[in-house]
Design a protein that fits this description.
This is ATP-binding protein. About 35% of the residues lie in helices and about 35% in strands. A six-stranded antiparallel sheet has the order 1-2-3-4-8-7. The protein has a two-stranded antiparallel ribbon with strand order 5-6. Strand 3 and strand 4 form a beta hairpin. The protein is globular and about 40 Å long.
């Protein structure tokens, strides 16, 4: 994990070998950064659920043997950039996140969800925020 020392809103990145530790590591990093972003408990839970789905589905779509995620916390916001993913991997990851009887959880919980192609690779961008009062 790396973080630039320029303050609480500095980006943090993790690169985790695809395997059984992806879920536990992402869950803890997302929980910590969502708390730092001052997300209320319900949105923190949403962020952890999104992290669990990404951890479970991303290894099938990464270009190399690691799941790489860059996090950008902000005031009551947490953004994730997942990748590099193989071509078509971003959309496939989102489709794979559907839960029977519930639907696509990432689409339901994210305030922004987009796939950004960059040459022969792509990145999945997910943003969760809390628009309520900061009281």
């Amino acid at each position: 994990m790396t973080s630039q020392p320029s303050g609480a809103d500095a980006p943090t990145t993790v690169s985790i070998a695809a395997g059984p530790l992806v879920g536990p590591i992402l869950r803890r990093v997302v929980g910590m950064l969502a708390a730092r972003a001052d997300l209320p408990l319900d949105r923190l839970d949403d962020a952890v659920l999104v992290a669990d789905l990404i951890a479970a589905r991303a290894p099938a779509h990464v270009l190399h043997g690691t799941v790489d995620v860059a996090f950008q916390p902000g005031p009551r916001t947490l953004s994730l950039r997942v990748g590099p993913l193989r071509p078509g991997g971003g959309d496939a990851l989102v489709v794979d996140a559907a839960v029977p009887g519930v639907g696509n959880v990432i689409e339901q919980l994210a305030d922004e969800l987009r796939v950004a192609p960059e040459g022969e690779r792509e990145f999945l961008h997910v943003r969760l925020e809390y628009a309520g009062s900061a009281n």
